[in-house]
Amino acid sequence: MEKPHQNNKQKATAFSQAVATLRDWIERSSRIVFFGGAGVSTESGIPDFRSEDGLYRQTYDYPPETILSDQFFYSHTEEFYRFYRDKMLCPNTQPNDAHQRLALLERRGKLLSVITQNIDGLHQKAGSRRVLELHGSIWRNRCLRCGKEYTLEHIAESAGVPHCSCGGIIKPEVVLYGEQLDSGVLQQAVQDLKNADLVIVGGTSLSVYPAAGLLDYYQGHLALINKSPTSYDSRADLLLPWGIGRVLRAAVPESLTE
Ligand SMILES: [Zn+2]
């Protein structure tokens, strides 16, 4: 029977070995692409609405996947906005270490882009410049009739269904269930993945369309940071089953002399 302290030691060794490998790969790479999902934002306190905590079902008559669909937006606009303001708008949330270290890699000229499934804008808040937002952003909103743009604050501070000065309904530029992804963003993501010399996937189970399909455009070294197993684990060359902030803190030193 193993002693508890040996288990802890083994765990620490597994972590430091995996992180040392990732750090080495990052040092040798200059065209890194990071592909991230909800797990990157949960460490900033943004809940993953796909996780079953039952919370939404207590307050809302429909599951979040229904509310966040285009059909629901057009048929129950007021109910959509009640949920959206309550659960999706998070203007005061701050980036965490994962966002910061990725921005640092871009500043050092090592990272091509962040491809994200998140809509919270936290990568940009941390200073990342090339962020490909597959599912859009809560920071962009547009009138459905005339196309005029509105800020997040405008949506947060209005009541009921937000309307444009022309009378049209304002819709967030967030990709709802049932809607197509922006083909321009997809093309850039494919291009960056084809050019990448290292892909780090983090905080996603890769179960949400089109994540896994996009990664098929990349054939090189792939590191996967996710606390729980994913269907993509066998494709990864390096598995890091720990929190993304913890891994990137260790793998991307703040100072290059560390
Ligand atoms: Zn308008």
Brief summary of the model shown:
With 258 residues, this protein is of the alpha/beta class.
Instruction: Please provide the ordered H/E string of secondary-structure elements.
Output: HEHHHHHHEHEEEHEHEHEEH
* Cα-based radius of gyration, to the nearest Å: 20 Å
CATH top level label of the largest domain: Alpha Beta
| Percentage of residues in helical conformation | 40-55%
Count of extended strands: 9
Number of domains: 2
CATH topology of the largest domain: Rossmann fold
The CATH architecture of the largest domain can be named as 3-Layer(aba) Sandwich
Mean pLDDT: 91
* CATH homology group of the largest domain: TPP-binding domain
Strand residue content: 15-25%
Query: How far is the first residue's CA from the last residue's CA?
Result: 38 Å
Characteristics:
single chain, 258 residues, alpha/beta, Rossmann fold, SIR2/SIRT2 'Small Domain', 2 domains, six-stranded parallel beta sheet, three-stranded antiparallel beta sheet, 12 helices, 9 strands, 40% helix, elongated, binds zinc ion
What can you see in these coordinates?
With 258 residues, the protein is α/β, with parallel strands linked by helices. The protein folds into 2 domains: 18-46 and 95-135 and 181-258, 3-Layer(aba) Sandwich (Rossmann fold), CATH 3.40.50.1220; 47-89 and 136-174, SIR2/SIRT2 'Small Domain' (2-Layer Sandwich), CATH 3.30.1600.10. It has 12 helices and 9 strands. Strand 7 (198-202), helix 11 (211-215) and strand 8 form a beta-alpha-beta unit. It is elongated and about 60 Å long. The model has no long low-confidence stretch (mean pLDDT 91). The structure holds zinc ion (ZN).
